[in-house]
């Protein structure tokens, strides 16, 4: 019996890990956007970076239940590390610098995880916010970071020595999209593994998870470190594609934006952060052009509607609409076939 249950669990994991047609369509659309929307490459690169940042928080919030108000700490730390090593010529290869920035952010996440995971949700919120504020003040005080003027004079070399960054953002978008896809594949592998299942059980009931032998603290420290690394890579991508880093990468607004993105897109299924980043950026640009002074009001109103109406109800409306449209299409096609067969009847 134990072996049978293990085999069933493994089969379920393999079934969940299979690629769905909608997933394939999503990434094909992302590739097609490079050819169909060349004038949007700068914005699309920013969307990809936002999506990676939201993905890093989704690993914590959606799968482990760790709420953070200071996730920008790792985003900003990775951004400054990438800028400093590029400015002073420590690492000239962008991809290698990206890896170094991710590792540096992961180390910060690992060290701070012992503070964050000691308390309950409210304590965690305050600790994560405090870490971000401390790092921001350090960046503001240090002369090497440029203080309030930001880190300037950053020069990013060509990727692999072959693909230079251009002002139109073509290289930046491809680079950001490839990094996002590779890290998404890794995250997908993580959440559909026994490690990911243990994270879901911890989120559901940490006491019960500990009772069945899951090392709760070690799992949470591991996923917190992974999430910090992802956020650090996202911040490094922003610095490399813009060749500038400022205190805004450590602001509370940055953490609030990524939470808003996850609220819009949903948590716990990886694509929530990506879809939320697309919708958030499109709404931001459209509303900023429509009403430059009040665009935040409209985004806040949309957020309130999502919370009041409920995502499940909105999704149910869409599913009902799609089912009705399919049924009408079926009847229409069936009626046409019946009419054509009756007209072709020789009798």
The average pLDDT is: 84
Distance between the termini: 65 Å
Number of domains: 2
CATH architecture of the largest domain: Orthogonal Bundle
Helix content: over 70%
Uncertain regions spanning at least 5 consecutive residues: none
Number of H- or I-type helical stretches: 14
Q: Outline, from the CA principal axes?
A: globular
Strand content: under 5%
Q: Give me the Rg, rounded.
A: 23 Å
Structural class: mainly alpha
- At the first level of CATH, the class of the largest domain is Mainly Alpha
At CATH level 3, the topology of the largest domain is: ABC transporter involved in vitamin B12 uptake, BtuC
The main β sheet shows up as:
none
In N-to-C order, the SSE pattern is HHHHHHHHHHHHHH
Word description of this protein:
The chain is mainly alpha-helical and 347 residues long. The protein has 2 domains: 21-295, ABC transporter involved in vitamin B12 uptake, BtuC (Orthogonal Bundle), CATH 1.10.3470; 310-347. The chain contains 14 helices and no strands. The chain has helices at 2-17, 21-36, 41-64, 72-87, 94-116, 121-141, 170-191, 194-204, 206-211, 216-242, 252-265, 271-290, 295-309, 311-344. Helix 4 crosses helix 10. The longest helix is centred in the last third of the chain and has 34 residues, at 311-344. It is globular and about 60 Å long. The N and C termini lie far apart (65 Å).
């Amino acid at each position: 019996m134990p072996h049978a249950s293990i085999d069933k669990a493994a089969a379920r994991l393999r079934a969940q890990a299979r690629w769905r047609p909608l997933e394939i369509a999503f990434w094909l659309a992302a590739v097609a956007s490079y050819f169909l929307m060349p004038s949007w490459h700068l914005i699309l690169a920013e969307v990809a970076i936002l999506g990676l940042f939201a993905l890093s928080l989704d690993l914590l919030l959606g799968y482990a239940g760790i709420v953070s108000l200071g996730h920008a700490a790792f985003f900003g730390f990775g951004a400054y590390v990438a800028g400093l090593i590029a400015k002073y010529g420590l690492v000239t290869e962008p991809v290698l610098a990206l890896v170094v920035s991710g590792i540096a952010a992961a180390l910060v996440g690992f060290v701070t995880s012992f503070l964050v995971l000691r308390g309950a949700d409210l304590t965690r919120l305050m600790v994560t916010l405090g870490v971000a504020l401390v790092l921001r003040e350090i960046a503001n005080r240090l002369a090497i970071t440029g203080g309030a003027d930001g880190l300037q004079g950053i020069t990013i070399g060509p990727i692999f020595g072959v693909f230079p960054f251009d002002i139109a953002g073509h290289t930046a978008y491809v680079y950001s999209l490839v990094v996002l896809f590779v890290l998404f594949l890794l995250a997908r592998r993580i959440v559909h593994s026994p490690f990911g299942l243990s994270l879901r059980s911890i989120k559901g009931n940490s006491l019960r998870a500990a009772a069945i032998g899951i090392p709760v603290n070690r799992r949470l420290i591991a996923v917190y470190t992974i999430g910090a690394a992802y956020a650090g890579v996202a911040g490094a991508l922003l610095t490399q594609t813009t060749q500038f880093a400022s205190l805004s990468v450590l602001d509370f607004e940055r953490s609030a934006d990524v939470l808003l993105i996850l609220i819009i897109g949903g948590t716990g299924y990886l694509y929530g952060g990506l879809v939320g980043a697309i919708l958030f950026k499109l709404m931001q640009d459209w509303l900023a052009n429509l009403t430059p002074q009040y665009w935040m009001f409209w985004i806040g109103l949309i957020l309130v509607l999502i919370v009041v109406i409920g995502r499940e109800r909105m999704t149910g409306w869409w599913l009902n609409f799609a089912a009705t449209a399919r049924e009408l299409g079926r009847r229409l096609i069936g009626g046409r076939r019946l009419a054509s067969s009756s007209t072709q009847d020789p009798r």
